[in-house]
């Protein structure tokens, strides 16, 4: 019985890496690879984070038996938490902005969580924002904790401990550039720190959606243009989370919604890789960046989740037409 896991939690991580072949510019001297996080049991990179947040809160005594986990989530962290909470006997309440796809809300309810929807287009400090509502609920509800994925150090730490070493082992350390989008920043900060410690010459690139303020914060120290809405889910920010460690990142590239949604469909039709728009956005940024590289390079791109969560959007022609994508 060597190969049988004790629970789905033991199946988190060790996700595969695949070569990208058919969506690249012709004659590109570079090689592109994608780490497919949809192979996690809950379908995204955030499975790693869900169990990490819970175990850290148990260890420090913040989370007690039968307790409630409240989190502001664009969906994937919710599922990572809900899956671990089911096995460990905790309740979950998730607060999500209304731009998040119907599929993501439905799956969280199916996993037994309560889902509260808040308006997307309000300032982070607004009492109606998903961050404010989740904070308030975690204070009002007895025996509740806030997952706090944007600021919780357990987030980059789990990527430093798992995702980074996996990438190093799977590639034998033979990569030149690591590329990811930043939502909470946990992935890029944790993986980036690990890879830089192994080889300081590896470049850490952040792909950022146009409309996010992270690009301006990196290059100018302040937003030059105010944050504005975009359709890619889970990445980019209208504030600077503690878990976005700008010092770990070497470069930022901006990507438009149009580029991201086109690549989402190209990845499916040309590579048979069905992923969400944030994966496509990361790859588009990687391709743009590669055009300025002087030597042939190996570029590894994080693909955070599956396209199945976006059937009503990225893979729905009517929605794409309505949104001019
Ligand atoms: C679909 C998707 N892609 C990318 C990310 C970004 O990952 P991180 O929060 O580690 O920066 C998230 C985070 O919520 C996400 O949901």
Summarize the structure.
The chain is of the alpha/beta class.
> What's the number of helices?
10
Helix content: 25-40%
The secondary-structure class comes to: alpha/beta
Supply Rg: 19 Å
The helix/strand order is: EEHEHEHEHEHEHEHEHHEH
Q: Let me know the largest β-sheet.
A: 6 strands, mixed
Using the coordinates above, name the CATH class of the largest domain.
Answer: Alpha Beta
Q: Based on the structure given, which CATH architecture of the largest domain is correct? A: 3-Layer(aba) Sandwich
Q: Averaging pLDDT over every residue, what do you get?
A: 96
The outline comes out as globular
CATH structural fold name of the largest domain: Rossmann fold
Bound molecules: pyridoxal-5'-phosphate
Our estimate of the beta-strand percent is: 15-25%
Distance between the termini: 49 Å
Detail the poorly predicted runs.
none
Number of strands: 10
> How many structural domains are formed by the residues?
2
Largest sheet: spatial strand order: 1-2-10-7-8-9
